[in-house]
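Q: Got a minute? One more chain.
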Amino acid sequence: MNILAWNVQGLGNDWTFRILHDYVQQYSPSLVFLSETLSSKAQMERLRFKLGYSGMLTWGREGRSGGLCLLWSDSITVQLLSGSKGHIDVVVSSPNSTCWRFTGLYGNPDTSLRPQFWDLMKRLRDSSSLPWLCGGDMNEILFDHEKKGGGGRASYLLRNFREAIEYCNLADLGFRGPKFTWCRGNYNSNFIQEKLDRMLGNSGWSDMFPNSIVHHLGLWGSDHRPLLIEVLKEGEVSSLGKSLRRGRFHFEEAWADELECRDTILKHWREHSAGNLDEVANKLHQCASDLSRWNLEKFRWLREEIKKKTIAFNQADRALSSANWRIHQRLERELEALKYKEERYWQQRSKDLWLKSGDRNSKFFHRKASARRAKNSIVGLFNSNEN
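A: Always. Here it is, folded:
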């Protein structure tokens, strides 16, 4: 089971939605907690539908700020305990697991109101004894070394945060990836990085899922990195980063409308007569090989470019500093342009204008393409007696 937590800093941005959609496709999180959505409940309902989640809880924005959302798949059951502009607290259960508790948190950015947030955490701790996982954008660091650049942080803020965590009997779950989860500034001394986002668990939750891993994902689409939590029981291992083995040949439905595909098939089928099954098998093998090569040139060049740019972006992201901030931003812009081209490609393939931007390479477009071909298919011929 995977969980995604991210301060998206507004979902009105098409680029941010594309990245969120990509993460959902890539990691299939059963639970998604979003903060600073800056969106109404109706807008989030449309997003839930596009992402394919079965359940949703929201706390609306206040003016031009705030907004929390919790999405979940039909593989789990979620029961609301409480909610506010700073948290969503639920009980999570699945068929093969004991109930546990998840709280998505969003720390008040106003330091004068921060004590109210620490008091909220303490009240939440006292309200339940279930195994507890909580976290999100806390808007605070624990130690001085969790900030790089800019002025120092007031020591009492860090101390109060640590005291709240200790009272709640929580522990930081650690992370894999870049240390800092937030950055802002330009290319000089004003460049600031901080670890504002984290996941915390009590001993009950850590005992229940001892192999769990928190990943800090790429810094794009928002000033905050998404947190991906792999919820792993004892004996379970991480599935991220494993290479997929090459599968057998599949004819892709998107090829069906391409003249080059038709010409490739006709070329092989007309070259020699198929006198026996071995010759038929050989024709199919040669035709599949040529179609795969054609597909690589015709369709996959864009994916390869996206892959290359993503690798370059991740390299810059892992070593993020004021020195390579310009490169980081340039690669993010280039990736946005490539992903937009990919989205437009699938829109054209489906001949559907249902979504003008956002749902990149989605199952919706594939289903629409399949439905169109099914509608145009001849399933049988009938004589005058309808036989």
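A: The longest helix spans residues 325-350.
Q: Perfect, thanks.
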